[in-house]
Amino acid sequence: MTAATGTSTEPATRVEGLDKVTGTAKYAYEYTAPAVAYAWVVQATVATGRVTAVAAEAVLGIDGVIAVISHQNAADIAATDSAFTDLLRGPGVAYRGQCVALVVAETSEAAREAAARLPIIYDE
Fold it and tell me: Is 106 exposed, middle or buried (CB count within 10 Å of its CB: 0-12, 13-18, 19+)?
């Protein structure tokens, strides 16, 4: 066996270590940034079928909700190699839990609440 190179028997100095173990460290999510929006995935509640309607108007009035993105309005999303964005391009549902819409809001809480309330109609 060969000895590992670049290792040291000296302990590493963690400049943020004390802050982390005492609970005072700020993590990336805790820093405020201007003009941030949050998206919450709306998952299919049926195992297979087609989405026939996404009633976005039912949640767009919730305070902080910016938009609802689904196959009904996602045609302008640029084509990519992402299977995720392809899910929003058509109404087909291949499995329960598939992403059928996204709710975009000013806070994560508003996005989650609106996603839970978003009416989706299926043809199973």
Answer: middle
